[in-house]
């Protein structure tokens, strides 16, 4: 059974990216999904002096173990000022001190969404390139623009053209594991 580690890359309690990540993970039939919340991986802001004095926090070790225990990493990226949220970047920085290639060769399905028309394409540009340098294999990406117009909790992606594009991306990921 495919084991999926899914999360929204945000520490917002009402994260729209957490909603999108949960929805995307549900689309995989016969998968075991672990949906995590970045609030459970809260750590001090990374600093070399903190690392020297106190070592790497347990939460980073726990995140690294979760990556290794799953087959697919599914992330929906929130965009803050064109890039990662501080919560996600901090998690990346701490975990990269355990192993720079922190994604451990895992296939990745990267999503993003925002209330705006670009749907987080700037953070996606960064994340999709950086994932490869950090030991991940990006299998598919999908950005959902104008979340509140194009997504509902009951129906998922409501715009038919965007729903079709999303299904195509899902197929790419399914095929990757069918090989
Ligand atoms: C500090 C800050 C910066 C933001 N910068 C952007 C941005 O660059 N692009 C964008 O589309 N939305 C931006 N937004 C709006 C977020 O996309 C919006 O808050 C969204 O809900 C974040 O995703 P989340 O709900 O999963 O945390 C920003 C919001 C905050 C609070």
- Report the total helices: 7
Overall pLDDT confidence: 97
* Spatial strand arrangement across the major sheet: 2-1-3-4-5
- CATH A-level architecture: 3-Layer(aba) Sandwich
CATH domain class name: Alpha Beta
Spatial gap, N to C terminus: 14 Å
Number of strands: 7
Bound molecule kinds, no repeats: flavin mononucleotide
CATH superfamily: Flavodoxin domain
- Major sheet size, sense and barrel closure: 5 strands, parallel
The percentage of residues in β strands lies in: 15-25%
Give the overall form.
globular
Instruction: State the helical fraction.
Output: 40-55%
* Strand/helix succession: EHEHHEHEHEHEEH
Q: How many structural domains in the coordinates? A: 1
Short description:
The protein has 179 residues and is α/β, with parallel strands linked by helices.
Task: Tell me what you see in this structure.
The protein has 179 residues and is α/β, with parallel strands linked by helices. The protein has one domain (2-178): Flavodoxin domain (Rossmann fold). Helices cover 42% and strands 21% of the residues. The strands form two sheets. It has a five-stranded parallel beta sheet, with helices on both faces. The chain has a two-stranded antiparallel ribbon with strand order 6-7. 35% of the residues are buried. The mean pLDDT is 97. Bound molecules: flavin mononucleotide.
Defining traits:
single chain; 179 residues; alpha/beta; Rossmann fold; 5-stranded parallel β-sheet; two-stranded antiparallel ribbon; binds flavin mononucleotide
Layout: helices, strands, pairs:
Layout: E1 2-9, H1 16-26, E2 31-35, H2 48-54, H3 58-68, E3 72-77, H4 86-96, E4 107-113, H5 121-133, E5 137-144, H6 147-150, E6 151-152, E7 156-157, H7 160-178
């Amino acid at each position: 059974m495919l084991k999926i580690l899914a999360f929204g890359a945000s520490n917002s309690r009402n994260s729209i990216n957490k909603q999108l990540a949960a929805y995307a993970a549900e689309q995989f039939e016969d998968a075991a999904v672990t949906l995590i919340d970045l609030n459970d991986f809260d750590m001090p802001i990374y600093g070399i002096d903190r690392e020297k004095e106190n070592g790497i926090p347990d939460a980073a070790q726990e995140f690294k173990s979760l990556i290794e225990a799953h087959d697919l990493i599914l992330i929906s990226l929130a965009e803050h000022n064109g890039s990662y949220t501080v919560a996600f970047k901090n998690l990346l920085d701490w975990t990269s001190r355990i192993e720079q290639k922190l994604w451990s060769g895992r296939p990745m399905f990267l999503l993003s969404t925002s209330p705006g028309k670009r749907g987080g394409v700037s953070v996606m540009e960064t994340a999709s390139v950086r994932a490869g340098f950090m030991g991940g294999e990006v299998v598919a990406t999908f950005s959902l623009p104008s979340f509140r117009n194009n997504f509902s909790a009951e129906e998922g992606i409501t715009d038919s053209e965007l729903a079709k594009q999303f299904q195509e991306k899902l197929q790419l990921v399914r095929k990757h594991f069918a090989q």
